[in-house]
Write a structure and sequence with these properties.
The complex is a heterodimer of chains A (443) and B (394).
Chain A lengths: L10 H8 L27 E8 L6 H4 L2 H14 L7 E8 L4 H14 L4 E3 L4 H14 L3 E2 L25 H15 L5 E6 L2 H14 L3 E7 L7 H9 L4 E5 L2 H14 L4 E4 L6 H11 L14 E4 L10 H13 L7 H19 L6 H11 L23 E8 L2 E10 L8 E2 L21
Parallel strand pairs in A: 1-2, 1-3, 3-4, 5-6, 5-7, 7-8, 8-9
Antiparallel strand pairs in A: 9-10, 10-11, 11-12
Chain B lengths: L6 H6 L33 H22 L2 H27 L6 H16 L7 H23 L4 H21 L1 H4 L5 E2 L7 H10 L6 H24 L2 H11 L1 H6 L4 H27 L1 E2 L6 H14 L4 H24 L4 H22 L3 H30 L1
Antiparallel strand pairs in B: 1-2
Helix pairs in contact in B: 2-9, 3-9, 3-12, 3-13, 3-14, 4-5, 4-6, 4-12, 5-12, 9-12, 10-12, 13-14, 13-16, 14-15
The chains are: A alpha/beta (443), B mainly alpha (394).
Chain lengths: 443, 394
């Protein structure tokens, strides 16, 4: 088995064969056996993980901070002994949010860097380009940073891929139910990104308030003029606008509405609502005329993770400590919290995969134990053999200043016609040093 | 006299051919027959000579693909589609003097055709699919070419720019067929069985799907360059150059400028279509965000850096496009930059390289080398002629 560690062309075959006898026969859990190079990307003292993010280009603001959060968490984890004594090495590469480049950097990660697993690859169109490749090559594709249903809906099609954040359809359902109960007379307009993001969100929201929706307008990412869409919403008489859009379009829609004298109640889905980032974008797009996120004050949004303004939340306290000790320049942001929370789940997965993890063992571990994991995410994950969907719960929050206040506690649901229920679980408290301690479930 | 700009003629034919726009396109103006100096072991016939080069290049391609790692194989696959498109563009821009900012859109036509055909339940054989990609792109190229033939310089650039911006928009408008913004995922075709046998016979390496795609790309690249090389050395190539350099003279010689311009555009579009087809199977996706104006501009910079009008230059320029960013990123990482900073370094260095090339080697790599070589030969010929003249007078 040690031959596998040699990074030669021929060893790829050998290693693929090696992954079949999952677990490698060593007893794991208590750390009784010895560390072995049990699969590609695993050595006696390291595990290599990889990811693709937009570090340059239009999608870089905000999103490029996620890997710094992941990195900071793993750095602190490594100082405390890593996972079964192995350091986690995290390699992330820039795809500029261009699927062609995602394909190139993923080739590099899988074939050149020989990662054990992909984690947190960001973006729906970008990750779509590589999901077939990763599954064909048998590379675990954990916790994709996108709420598309693609990663989790059909484990038979993509057995190696797992979602992580609340999918857009479930989010749409929770938003729809909230509007039906609290704004039954509102004339709702939808402002949607013209891809799975907007489509799934719309499908979810229409389950509850189809008759209240007076207009659904779509924008194409890259086209920065949203005047026609906002004007159409205004003309249709919508007094409540739900946006399934990315942060830059939150800023654009706010500025356009300001120009048109249009002032509905805004509701932005989680993806597009980070007040700090949107404030910065507003400042840039308006060339200084709008200086912060004050325009967003009073807008509604959803949440599935604690945010940096919740300074008394124990997870935020721990993440702040990790960022101070192991992070780089800059402040802790919601995007860095997102990265750290993903790294936390990844650590749980690696621990559950046992002392000598294999790629198949890792997938098995998430399927078997993932539904039980507690962490910073408000509601449990839906992982099982039949579903690779991430968390399915969300709160509704109102944006105040650079933070938010909860207006509806966590409610959970699933895709399709699954009902929405109150989540009665307790919020988890972080373990010592915010390092999980999961039992191995693979033998 | 087979070539207006052949070096032998510069000494004797007077000023007119000296100050024609030869400098920028020097890369493309290789002699169309073996040099008259004749110390060449290559066959006299252009076709035979190119066939020989093709065989040598094919052997070289196999050697390169077998000696490099799987990741480098995938990079080479990327290189092939850039190089095929750049080859077509360099024929259009270098040989015929037309500028196109719309080649990214023509590649999109090829890529979407490939994606649609591979999506079928029992897809056609790969060569047929790639041929279809060529046909579709050619048809679009012909349409645009007819309009383009009437336009010059910035106007032509504007018209093709509209193509680059507009065509990918169709994919979003016809959301149900083309998958909208997210595009169509492409199931890369599996390698046939003989490929396994071939690879194990040649090198004993693992015949992965990445390797198969790199071979498909390399085969397409070699065939394209073989055709293009023959074309530019033929009467057609000479006519294109005549249209480029001296419109009035060409028209006086009975050349229909418009028709020849359309032909150049069509040939170039065919290459872009094939490149798009290869891109679709290598990237496994055809999405509008892959065919932005940035792609068209990248192709243009590739041929300018390499040397306008030269196929070797197009290949070199494409190689720079593929290998420079990861090289710079890794170098930045080695020098202790964070991965984010290193990633931001790549576009910067690419820009610097472009500026440096424009200042110091304005005719591109191949063009500048060829220009040097031509100047030296011309000087020697002049000296020879001077000596001859002196001796005959004396």
């Amino acid at each position: 088995m040690t031959a596998i560690a040699a990074a030669t062309v021929a060893s790829t075959v050998a290693a693929c064969g090696g992954s079949d006898d999952s677990g490698g026969g060593t007893s794991s859990g208590g750390g009784g056996g010895e560390n072995e190079a049990s699969d590609i990307g695993v050595t006696e003292d390291t595990i290599t993980l990889g990811a693709h993010y937009p570090l340059t280009g239009v999608a870089a603001p905000g999103y490029s901070e996620i890997p710094t959060g992941v990195q900071a968490y793993f750095d602190c984890l490594n100082q405390e002994g890593g996972v079964y004594g192995r350091d986690i090495e995290f390699i992330f590469r820039d795809d500029a949010y261009n699927p062609t480049q995602t394909s190139q950097v993923t080739n590099e990660l899988v074939l050149e860097d020989e990662i054990f697993a992909m984690m947190s690859g960001l973006g729906t169109p970008t990750h779509s380009a590589v999901v077939d490749f990763l599954n064909d090559e048998g590379v675990p594709d954990l916790f994709v940073s996108s709420g598309s249903l693609l990663w989790g809906e059909d484990p038979e099609q993509y057995p190696m891929s797992f979602g992580w954040q609340t999918d857009y359809e479930s989010e749409g359902k929770i938003i729809g139910e909230y509007i039906a109960e609290n704004f039954p007379d509102a004339q709702v307009g939808l402002f949607l990104q013209d891809d799975d993001f907007g489509e799934d969100g719309e499908a979810g929201i229409r389950q509850y308030i189809d008759d209240q929706i007076v207009a659904a307008e779509r924008y194409t990412p890259g086209n920065t003029n949203v005047g026609p869409q906002i004007a159409a919403l205004q003309a249709a008489g919508a007094d409540f606008v739900v946006g399934f859009n990315v942060p830059s379009y939150t800023a654009l829609s706010q500025l356009t509405a300001l120009q048109l004298g249009y002032d509905p109640q805004w509701f932005y889905s989680n993806v597009g609502s980070d007040p700090t980032l949107v404030g910065g974008l507003l400042n840039r797009f308006s060339e200084g005329q709008v200086s912060d996120a004050a325009l967003l004050d009073g807008a509604l949004t959803t949440g599935y993770l604690p945010t940096v303004d919740m300074t008394d939340n124990p997870w935020i306290t721990e993440f702040q400590r990790i960022w101070d000790e192991c992070g780089g320049e800059g402040d802790l942001t919601n995007y860095r919290v997102y990265g750290m929370a993903q790294a936390y789940t990844m650590t749980q997965a690696l621990q559950a995969a046992g002392q000598n993890p294999t790629r198949e063992g890792l997938v098995e571990a998430v399927e078997t134990a993932g539904g039980e994991w507690e962490g910073p995410v408000f509601a449990p994950f839906r992982y099982s053999e039949d579903s690779h969907m991430g968390t399915g719960g969300m709160t509704i929050e109102r944006i105040v200043g650079n933070g938010s206040e909860e207006v509806q506690p966590v409610r959970i649901t699933d895709i399709g016609d699954a009902p929405i229920e109150e989540y009665d679980g307790e919020a988890a408290t972080p373990p010592a040093n915010a390092i999980p301690d999961e039992e191995s479930v693979v033998d | 006299m087979s070539d207006l700009q052949s070096p032998a003629s510069t000494g004797t034919a007077g000023k007119a051919s000296d100050d024609a726009p030869v400098k920028a396109t020097a890369g493309g103006d290789a002699p169309s027959a073996p040099a008259t100096t004749g110390r060449s072991f290559l066959p006299q016939s252009t076709l035979l000579r190119h066939l020989l080069v093709l065989v040598v290049c094919a052997v070289l391609a196999v050697a390169i693909l077998e000696l490099t790692s799987p990741f480098q194989n995938s990079q080479l696959a990327t290189l092939t589609y850039y190089a095929i498109a750049a080859g077509g563009l360099t024929v259009l821009t270098g040989m015929n003097g037309q500028i196109s900012l719309g080649h990214g859109a023509l590649m999109a036509a090829g890529a979407y055709t490939t994606a649609l055909l591979l999506d079928a339940e029992e897809p056609l054989p790969l060569p047929v699919i790639l041929l279809a990609a060529i046909v579709v792109a050619t048809a679009i190229g012909a349409l645009v070419g007819v309009a383009a033939a009437r336009l010059h310089g910035p106007y032509l650039a504007g018209a093709t720019l509209a193509l680059a911006v507009g065509l990918p928009g169709l994919a979003i408008y016809f959301h149900d067929i083309f998958g909208g913004e997210q595009g169509m995922r492409v199931r890369a075709p599996q390698a046939p069985e003989w490929f396994d046998g071939f690879i194990s016979a040649v090198s004993g390496n693992n015949a992965s799907s990445t390797k198969w795609l790199a071979y498909v790309g390399a085969i397409c690249l070699l065939i394209t360059y073989f055709f293009l090389a023959n074309l530019v050395r033929s009467r057609i190539g000479r006519t294109w150059r005549a249209v480029r350099d001296q419109e009035v003279a060409a028209e006086l010689a009975g050349i229909n400028l418009g028709a020849w311009r359309v032909l150049a555009f069509v040939v170039s579009a065919a290459a872009a279509g094939l490149a798009g087809g290869v891109l679709a199977i290598v990237v496994r996706l055809a999405a509008p965000s892959g065919f932005t104006i940035v792609l068209s501009l990248a192709l243009l910079t590739a041929i300018v850096i390499g040397g306008l009008g030269s196929l070797t230059g197009a290949l070199l320029g494409s190689a720079l496009l593929v290998f420079l960013p990861p090289f710079v990123t890794n170098l930045g990482g080695d020098f202790g930059l964070s991965q984010t900073e290193a990633a931001q370094l790549a576009p910067f260095v690419y820009g610097v390289v472009l500026i440096v090339v424009m200042i110091f080697v304005p005719a591109g790599f191949v063009g500048t080398i060829r220009l040097r070589w031509m100047t030296r030969k011309a000087k020697r010929a002049m000296a020879q002629a001077g000596a001859d003249g002196a001796s005959s007078r004396g």
